[in-house]
TrEMBL record:
Regions annotated as coiled coil: none
Protein name listed in UniProt: Histidine--tRNA ligase
Pfam families for the chain: HGTP_anticodon, tRNA-synt_His
Binding site for L-histidine: E81, G82, T83, R113, Q127, E131, R258, Y262, Y263
Catalytic activity reported: tRNA(His) + L-histidine + ATP = L-histidyl-tRNA(His) + AMP + diphosphate + H(+)
Cellular component GO terms held in the UniProt record: cytoplasm
Chief location: cytoplasm
Enzyme class: ligase
Gene that produces this protein: hisS
Domain Aminoacyl-transfer RNA synthetases class-II family profile: 1-325
Length: 421
């Protein structure tokens, strides 16, 4: 039996990989404009990092991590998300001491979660994410949301919606936590085992439970917005005011709690409203994590960021019928007839490639008609035809495939002529 790809993963083949390269290049470009610098961290980290940051009682840590022991008996985990690793790197490399502040970083790379695969949900997926660490100015919150929205818009998505909430500061969260315990405790035995465990440890997580989401107590649960203290409310208002000024529409949703524990104040998700996008409509999510740097052993430094998967982005583009301007054609295909001409074709494609053009020739000893077909298949803009006869005369026939126009060019100038065109 042949070996198959692991469940929840995908091969990204030529023909599709160009779309990935395009959106990744656009991501890098928008980060350049917003002044975020790339950081690359390992694919695996100490398991403890995710327990401490994403949170012991979250689904990610309890059910979805690819954790293993290495041969030195260390507990390691394939990263399920990027924020924890970036903050670990920020602390370890003392980036808080850099002259330029806040520290603004981005990453594009694979993440791993053992989830039930379906459209838009994979076990290995690629996140593009940003983190801005070192400022608690609400303008950074607005900037992070603006970057995400601008990126989607610049790629041609229009059916997107920003959903915004505030989880408040630790004092507000504490008051909300107590209200949640009071609300759920009398009937907690009607909830799943996970929720029963979460009641005392982390009742906010109950609101994020997939199993019990339709329980009547969920709808009447106290909302965090009723417990925001004055300072948290002021912060939330300012973020909204800035988004309004930047023409970034949003909807408020006091039930948006996110699935990771490190958030305070601003949280947001961006959803696709395109028809046929599928059951999972969240394109990206993020928020502010003011306590996280300290939890990981660094100084008290506030942070905010977001992440999106490229997989869901491409699904949204498809659902909205957006075609990306991806170029896949070849500059020149060299068709050769006769043994000497074939050898010369090898030299000519080499010259073309050195000059910066993409070039290809036949390697299967095909007849001339089949070589033309091959040129067609790779969408060649020019086809250069060389026979032993042309070789003797020191010329080559260059055909412009768009216009059909044919020009005889001297062999010594062929590469320069085609490259210039
Ligand atoms: P998250 O909401 O867990 O947040 O994931 C962010 C995004 O990653 C999702 O909106 C989705 O696009 C993508 N994603 C997550 N799981 C999957 C999956 N199984 N298959 C495909 N795509 C997936 C975080 O990861 C936070 N680190 C975001 C953040 C950055 N917060 C602050 N800074």
């Amino acid at each position: 039996m042949s070996i198959q790809i692991p469940r929840g993963t995908q091969d990204i083949l030529p023909g599709t990989v160009e779309l990935w390269q395009y959106v990744e290049a656009q991501a890098r470009d928008i980060c350049r404009r917003y002044n975020y610098k790339e950081v690359r961290t390992p694919i695996f980290e100490h398991t403890e990092l995710f327990k401490r940051s994403v949170g012991d009682t979250t689904d990610i840590v309890q059910k979805e991590m690819y954790s293993f022991k290495d041969r030195g008996d260390r507990d390691l985990t394939l990263r399920p998300e990027g924020t924890a690793a970036v903050v670990r790197s920020y602390v370890e490399n003392k980036m808080f001491g850099d002259a330029a502040q806040p520290t603004k970083l981005y990453y594009i790379g694979p993440m791993f979660r053992y989830e039930r695969p379906q459209s838009g949900r994979y076990r290995q997926f690629v996140q593009f994410g940003i983190e801005a660490i070192g400022s608690s100015d609400p303008a950074v919150d607005a900037e992070v949301i603006a970057l995400a929205v601008d990126y989607y818009r610049s790629l041609g998505l229009s059916k997107i919606k920003v959903v915004l909430n505030s989880l408040g500061d630790p004092a507000s969260r504490k008051a909300h936590r107590e209200a949640l315990i009071q609300h759920f405790e009398p009937r907690i035995e009607e909830f799943c085992g996970d929720c029963q465990n979460r009641l005392q440890k982390n009742p906010l997580r109950i609101l994020d439970c997939k199993k019990d989401r339709n329980h009547e107590l969920m709808k009447t649960a106290p909302s965090i917005t009723e417990y925001l203290n004055e300072e948290s409310q002021r912060y939330y208002d300012k973020v909204q005011e800035l988004l309004d000024m930047m023409d970034i529409p949003f909807e408020k949703d006091s039930n948006l709690v996110r699935g990771l524990d490190y958030y305070q104040h601003t949280v947001f998700e961006i959803m696709s409203e395109a028809e046929g996008f599928g059951a999972i409509t969240t394109l990206s999510g993020g928020g502010r994590y003011n306590g996280l740097v300290q939890d990981i052993g660094g100084p008290e430094m506030p942070g905010i960021g977001f992440a999106m998967s490229i997989e869901r982005l491409l699904l949204a583009l498809q659902a909205e019928g957006v075609t990306l301007p991806v170029e896949t054609g070849l500059d020149c295909y060299v068709v050769a007839l006769g043994d000497r001409a074939k050898d010369y074709a090898a030299k000519l494609v080499h010259e073309l490639r050195l000059a910066g053009a993409s070039a290809e020739k036949d390697y299967l000893d095909r007849k001339i008609k089949a070589q033309f077909k091959a040129a067609d298949r790779v969408n060649a803009r020019y086809v250069a035809v060389l026979g032993d006869d042309e070789l003797d005369r020191g010329v080559i026939n260059v055909k412009d495939m768009a216009t059909g126009e044919q020009t005889e060019v001297s062999l010594s100038e062929a590469a320069a002529y085609i490259t210039k065109k």
